[in-house]
Amino acid sequence: MNYGLKSIETRKKKNIISVRPNVDFKTRGDLSIYYTPGVAAVSKKIAENPKSVFDLTIKRNSVAIVSDGSAVLGLGNIGPGAALPVMEGKALLFSHFAGIDAWPICLATQDTDDIVKTVENIAPVFGGINLEDIAAPRCFEIERRLQNLGIPVMHDDQHGTAAVVLAGLINALQVVGKKIEDVKIVISGAGAAGTAVAKLILGYSLGRTRIIMIDSVGAICFDRSDLSIPKKELLEMTQNTSCGDLESITKEADVFIGVSAPRILSAEMVKRMSPRAIVFALANPIPEIDPAAARVAGAEVVATGRSDYPNQINNVLAFPGIWRGALDVGATAITQGMILAAAEAIAKTVVQPTAEKIVPPVLDRQTAAAVAAAVARVAKSEGVVR
I want to staple 72 with a disulfide (CB 3.0 to 4.6 A). Which of 14, 133, 289, 371 is the partner? Predict the structure, then answer.
C-alpha cells in the first residue's frame, strides 16, 4: 500500500481530529448549564480561586502541541503549514493512547523570543505544553525558558525519544549479557534527540557509562575548537578524550545509537564493533544501516524507527503515558526522574526480552498505562505537583 497517497486521500475526505461535545446537549436547560447563565458561576469560582481552573475546565486534560515547523520528521524545515498534518497525527495519538485532548499549534515564527512569548500567552488554556519538531539548539533554550509556567513543558523529540531508546537499551543489554556501566556507546547525532539520549543514559547509569558523541565533523572531544555551547556542554558531560571519525570511533564499540542521517554506518564498521554488538539505527525513513546488513555484519540486536522491522523505537511508547501520568497528579514539571521512570516502565513491559523484541509493540495500549503509573508515582515523590 502507498501510505502517503492513502494519508492524502483520507484527509481530503475528513479531518482526522475534531472538537466534539463531551456532555449531552439537547435542551434549553442544557444551554443554561453549559453556557449562560450557569457558566457565570464557573467563571466567578475560577476568579476567586485560580487553581480551580484545573478542576472546572478543559485545562485538566489538555496539551498544546507546539511546533515552528523547523525540524519535521525527516523532512527538515518545511514550515508551520506543512507541519500541521504531523501535529494532527500527534494529537490523534494523544487521544487514542491516553485519552488526552491535544491541540496542534503551529507557529508562523522561528524566533526563540517570539515562540517563548506566544507559549506563555496561550498557557492559561492548557495543562501542559508538548514542544515538537523544533530544531536544535533553539529547542533547548525554548524548553528551558518555559519551565516557570506552572504546568509541564516537554520537548518530545528529546525526552520521548530518550525514554524509548533507554528502554530498548536496558533490554538489549540484558539479551547480550552486558552491563550498562561496562559498555562503550557511540551516539551519532548531537542534536535534540542525541543530547537527550546521552543525558538519560548517564542519569540511569549514574554517570558510569562511556559515551562518545559524533556530529557531522567527528567525535565531540577536547581537541575540537569548533564546538557550540550545547556541544561544549555535551563534552563536559561525557568527558570524551577519543577523537576521530565515525569509522575509527565505532571500533570495539558495544552499542551504536544513530539519530542522524541515512547510510552512514557501513557493514565493515559493524564488523569491527565488539562481539554481541547492539545497533540502534533510528534515522527515518532510511536508517543509518540496513537492519539486515547490520545483522549479517554481526550485530546481535538491531532496532530502527520503522514499523516494518522488529524493535521499532517510537516515541508513541513514551509520550502518551508520560503526559497521562503528569496530568493525573497535577504535575508542574516533567523531571529527569519522571523520564527515567517512563523508560524503566517501558522496559519492564517486555517480560522476556529477545533479540527480536526489546520494546513492546507500538500499538500496545497497556504500555501507556504502565508509564503513566510510574510517572505519576515519581512526580508525587519528587513533589512536583500542585
Answer: 133
Convert the pLDDT of each residue in 72-107 to its tens digit: 987 899 999 999 999 999 999 999 999 999 999 999
Active site residue ranges: 35, 90
Q: Which residues contact 269 (CB under 8 A, 6 or more apart)?
A: 246, 247, 250, 251
29-68 b/e (C-beta count within 10 Å ≥ 16 → b) = eeeebeeeeeeeeeeeebeeeeeebbeebebebbbbbbbb
- Each domain of the chain, given as residue ranges in start order, spans 20-155, 156-386
3-state secondary structure 322-364: HHHHHHHCCECCCCHHHHHHHHHHHHHCCCCCECCECCCCCCC
List pLDDT tens digits, range 114-150.
Answer: 999 999 999 999 999 999 999 989 999 999 999 999 9
Could you tell me if 369 and 321 are in contact, meaning their C-beta atoms sit under 8 angstroms apart?
Answer: yes
Q: Report the C-alpha gap between 122 and 63 in whole angstroms.
A: 11
Domains 20-155 and 156-386 share a fold: yes
Instruction: Name 256's Cβ contacts closer than 8 Å, sequence gap at least 6.
Output: 185, 186, 188, 250, 265, 270, 273, 277, 278, 279, 280, 281, 288
Instruction: Between 2 and 312, name the one with better pLDDT.
Output: 312
Q: With respect to CATH, is domain 20-155 assigned 3.90.1700.10? A: no
How many angstroms separate the CA atoms of 346 and 366, rounded?
10
Q: Which fold has domain 156-386?
A: Rossmann fold (3.40.50)
In the structure, what pLDDT confidence band is assigned to residue 6 with cuts at 50, 70 and 90?
confident
Model confidence, pTM: 0.95
For residue 267, give the C-alpha cell. Answer: 557493514
Read off the DSSP letter of residue 67.
E
